[in-house]
Amino acid sequence: xxxGLIGLGxxxxxxxERIRAAGHEVIGYDINPAVSDVKSLAELVKKLEGPRIVWTxxxxxxxxxxxxAKLADLLEPGDLVIDGxxxxxxxxxxxxxxxxxxxxxxxxxxxxxxIWGRANGYGLMVGGTKANVKxxxxxxxxxxPEGPRDEGFVHAGKVGAGHYTKMVHNGxxxxxxxxxxxxxxxxxxxxxxxDVPGAFKAWTRGTVVRxxxxxxxxxxxxxxxxxxxxSDYTVDSGEGKWTVEEAIALDVPMPVISASLFARFASRxxxxxxxxxxxxxxxxxxxxxxxxxxxxxALRIGEADTVAPAPRAAKKAASKATAAKAAQPATKKTxxxxxxxxxxxx
Length: 346
Fold this sequence. Notes:
Blueprint: E1 2-6, H1 10-21, E2 25-29, H2 41-47, E3 53-56, H3 62-74, E4 80-83, H4 89-100, E5 105-112, H5 117-120, E6 123-127, H6 130-143, E7 153-157, H7 161-189, H8 196-202, H9 212-223, H10 239-249, H11 255-267, H12 273-286, H13 293-300, H14 312-326, H15 333-339
Parallel strand pairs: 1-2, 1-3, 3-4, 4-5, 6-7
Antiparallel strand pairs: 5-6
């Protein structure tokens, strides 16, 4: 079978090779000429024999919508477009409507597997008509993991259902990752636990919390037991946010996934306005000391166990002395190295 594949980045490039390894012909297009098989979308369409199947694997949002619009003008009635990116499910409705007006079919496909998918296969969640799914099944079978089809592939429902299912999948992923992360922090904080990486590795067999995500965390801790110099700034693809928005719209309680999403937002704040307000309120009703930013950061980096109230003039002088260190990330290298079983550098 022939397939046109648009977008040959980390996912798309590996997908091209896995599909080729299954014996199919893939003609790929990417804006990077070093990895592209053709120079333009027009050339891609021209090289495919009709009726064509074209799979888009580009950034969600405007770029995907523009790509689908260009394909609507280039393809012919009877052709089929599959969007395998992380598009919002509502975009699928507009894409299908546009392509249908030209006699072109449409499927949306949520794809999970990351950079490991080329070797292990990809989890696929598809939305669209049964006829279009059946037509593209040889490609889906090439991409999914080996074994029973229903353990790596689902025709989830109508157009939009594939991306909707993938959206919820990613929301669950947020919650799972944050649960492991909180467990890591608690173990690192307790002085009687001396081998935190070993504890996580021991969970990978026989326990109820074993998972591929756990395996990936174990791998990361074996390479860097204290996660030294790893920034806590965490981005999101948008799907966790869409999941929470859907939960609100449908009155579905979702405290775990919501909390994990908000934790990512908090990770991007150098200073938390909310906690500044809490500090000011504590000072107002209880007379508790309201520290300067420099004094608070001094506590974070271990310069002082307590901060005694100081006159305003003294605070001004102290803030200059700690300004440089205030910009440094908080670390607990000694305790962390002890927990990881590491010796001090000579």
